[in-house]
Write a structure and sequence with these properties.
The protein is globular, with a radius of gyration of 18 Å. The protein contains 12 helices and 10 strands. With 299 residues, the protein is of the alpha/beta class. This is Ketose-bisphosphate aldolase.
Length: 299
Amino acid sequence: MLINMKQLLEVAKEHTFAVGAFNVADSNFLRVVVEEAEKNNSPAIIAVHPTELEFTKDDFFSYVLNRIKNSHVPFVLHLDHGGNIADIMRAIRVGFSSVMIDGSLLPLAENIKLTKEIVDISHPLGVSVEGELGTIGNTGTSVEGGVSEVIYTRPEDAKEFVESTGVDTLAVAIGTCHGIYPKDMEPKLRMDILQAIKQEVDIPLVLHGGSANPDEEISEAVKIGIQKVNISSDYKYAFYKKCREILAATELWDPNAIYPECIDAAKEVVKYKMNLFNSQDKADLYRDEKVLAWRNELL
C-alpha cells in the first residue's frame, strides 16, 4: 500500500507511535525493510537520499513502486534531504509520494521561501513535504552531511516556519547527529526543546540521525511527539559487518551465497527499531475507509 507521509504520520500521531524511515540504496536493503515490515505488520518509510537515487537510477523505482503498492502494509516512498528543486522534481517524476527539502543551513527567511515553493509544487500532486529547521550534527560517517555542532531548533521559529510554509512534517534538531557516533561521543537529546516545540506546532515531527542513540531517549521522544525516526547507519552497518565476516572467512563470490546472512543481520536491526518505535502490528490501523481512499488516489 503506497500512501504519502502526511497520511502515514497522521495515524501515527493519533495513536502515539513512530514510523522508521530506512535509507535504501539497492535491492538488498529494499528487501530488508519491506520483508521485515510485512513480517511485523508494521508501516515503514523507504527513504532515498539524492546520492542513493543517483546510484540506483530512476528505473529501479519501477520495481520499488510495484513491490510496495502490492504490499498489505502501508509504505511511503520518500526523498531524504533533497537539496534543490531539481532533486524534488526528479523524485516526483519517478513516483515518490513524499519529498524533503533541506533548507536548514539557510537563514530562516530563505528556508521558509524555499520550502513554501516546494509545498506549492508538491501538494497539488498529492505529494507531502518535509522541511527541516535547525541543523543536525555530522559524525563524519554518513552521506547525509550536516555540521559538526548541532544548532537546536527554536520553538518560536518552528511556529513561524510551519505557519508560513504549510509543510506537512518538520525535522527538528534536538541533539542527534547523522552517522554512527564515535566511542568517545555520547548523544544527549534535549527533551525540553522537543516539548516546547510540541506546544507551538501541531504537525508530525521528525527525528533525523536516529541511529546509535540510547533506546530510552528515543522511546521518550516518541511519547512526547516524534512520529518519524530516520535510520540508515545502524542497519547498513549490521549488513556490511556480516558481509565482511563472510568474505574474510571464505572465497565466495556469488551474491546469492554471500548476501542472505547479511540481509538477516540487517533485518534484526530493523525489527528492533520497529519494536522501539512501537510500530509493530500497527498496519491494521491503515485499513479503514479513509486510508484506503488515500491509497486509491496514489495508485
